[in-house]
Design a protein that fits this description.
Two copies of one chain form a homodimer. Helix content of chain A is 48%, strand content 18%. Chain A is an alpha/beta fold. The longest helix of chain A has 26 residues, at 201-226. Chains A and B meet through helix 1, helix 5, strand 9 and helix 9 of A and helix 1, helix 5, strand 9 and helix 9 of B. Chain A binds a DNA duplex through helix 1, helix 3 and strand 2.
DNA sequence: AGGAGTTTGTGAACGAGAGAACAAACTGAG
DNA sequence: CTCAGTTTGTTCTCTCGTTCACAAACTCCT
């Protein structure tokens, strides 16, 4: 997925593990809210919806933060994972495209609570400028470079229609944004070293539909055979 | 991911391949719109953002729909993939939770164009009932079973806050909905045979943040070494 | 102190997915 | 008809990820 460019000095953590760390983090936060101070790999795995062996192996890539015979200290492990992911620091983010989805993203509380701060909402449509969404000004798309430089933005979110997405991505790359979260239903082409993650709502539904169809086809066949 | 319950009579397609079929489908639709009648695996692979060998292997699970020395007929392959996924038929869908995200989902045109028809928007808040969003009535959550039965709903979308999500999922399962797309930041526990896919906005950002951090840490280190 | 009972961290087996490479099958020119 | 050129479908290998199983390390009770 992500291009490994430079020579990895840090021990590298498998991509599959990285994708699960935020899940563990959320589970730990929930446990902490319930005033639970210690948990076993089994308990944490259940809370995160994974196998306990997998959880232990994942955590072992970060270091040895548990105590045998006891388990993990919730607060301590929570901090270690947060530090590893990088959510102990503040991440300025720009969102481009203030349609329905852009609105939803701007209002999503899960961003702010994880250290992601929306510093600007950008839209090409002049009618939307000077609007205020979720306490943030909507600015002209042309100001992207300026805003990115000013706030040190490293992460950009694309919530435009498919047609505009590639242009937006190009401009983001020019502006020095090397990590992009793309909600537009398009394959983006970007230079090496730029990290793109894609979220596609209709693809998720299609995958579900495939499984539904397979299930119903299988049961119809079973019924036929038993007749 | 998905629990394989029944004895698979159909040749089974690897999960990784299933996840890519909708991408191929979209690429084919784009090609068709550009009046391209034939394409090679290389061209289609580029349009879909994958390796051509992987594409050919994926397609080979569906059957042998290409012609050696020629390539694939765009329209024919498009139909075959659509049929395999199941998007040639109509899929009634309910969305629960009409916040910002629910609104965005209800308005998302990519659903309707792929055969997903939103038959109802449900919300527990009585103030929202009889509102109309994207041409669809907002109904009380209590009517879930009734509506699901009436329209033969097989797929449910959860766009509620985290706290409500498990209850909603339980009710969906009771109502016979065995495929759930969950946008709430929670791990759902469901009986075997129920298929849950999760989309988590803040997790995607956290994964990006991890890579940014690693990149900047690596370059800082490189700079240090060269000094 | 010692032993029974837990629970972590990890080595090793296993399975799934990615990519290279090539034979099979087609087209079109001569 | 034959041969060169093209492109698919598939086999093989390698890498990555998952799971099992167990030694190491800790607690607590006697």
């Amino acid at each position: 997925m992500t291009a490994r460019t430079s020579n990895d000095t840090a021990r590298d953590i498998p991509e599959a593990t990285v994708a699960r760390l935020p899940i563990y983090l959320r589970a730990l936060i929930t446990l902490a809210e319930d005033s639970i101070e210690t948990c076993s790999s089994e308990e944490l795995a259940t809370a995160a919806g994974v196998n306990s062996a997998k959880l232990r192996k994942d955590l072992s890539y970060l270091g040895s933060y548990g105590t045998r015979g006891v388990g993990y200290d919730v607060e301590y492990l929570r901090y270690q994972i947060a530090r590893e992911i990088g959510v102990t620091q503040d991440w300025p983010v720009v969102i481009v495209g203030i349609g329905n989805l852009g609105h939803a993203l701007a209002n999503y509380s899960g961003f702010r609570s994880r250290g992601f701060r929306v510093v600007a909402l950008l839209d090409a449509d002049p009618d939307r400028h000077d609007e205020v969404v979720a306490g943030v000004d909507v600015r002209p798309f042309d100001e992207l470079e300026e805003i990115a430089a000013e706030h040190g933005v490293a992460i950009g979110v694309i919530a435009t229609p498919a047609l505009a997405a590639q242009d937006v991505a190009d401009r983001m790359v020019t502006a020095g944004i090397a990590s992009i979260l793309n909600f537009a239903p398009t394959v983006l082409s970007v230079p090496d070293g730029v990290d793109v993650r894609k979220v596609d709502l209709s693809i998720e539904l299609q995958i579900l539909a495939f499984h539904v169809q397979r299930k119903t086809a299988a049961s119809a066949l079973a019924q036929e055979n038993s007749a």
